[in-house]
Amino acid sequence: MTDSATLPREDETSNSETCARAPVGLLAELTHRCPLQCPYCSNPVDLERANTELTTQEWQHVMRQAAELGILQIHLSGGEPTARKDLEDIVKTAAEVGLYTNLITAGVLLTKERLARLQELGLDHVQLSIQDVDAANADRIAAYKGGSDKKREVAKWVRELDMPLTINAPLHRQNIDNLPAIIDYSVEVGAGRLEVAHIQYYAWALKNRAALMPTREAFMKTVEIVNEAKERLKGILVFDFVVPDYYAKYPKPCMGGWGRGIMNVTPSGRVLPCHAAESLPGLEFENVRDRPLADIWLKGQAFEMFRGTEWMKEPCRSCSRKEIDFGGCRCQAYALTGDAANTDPACSLSPLHQDWAQVAKEESHKPSPEFVYRRMGKSGPAAGA
Ligand code: SF4
Ligand code: SF4
Question: What is the value of pTM for the model shown?
Answer without folding.
Answer: 0.91
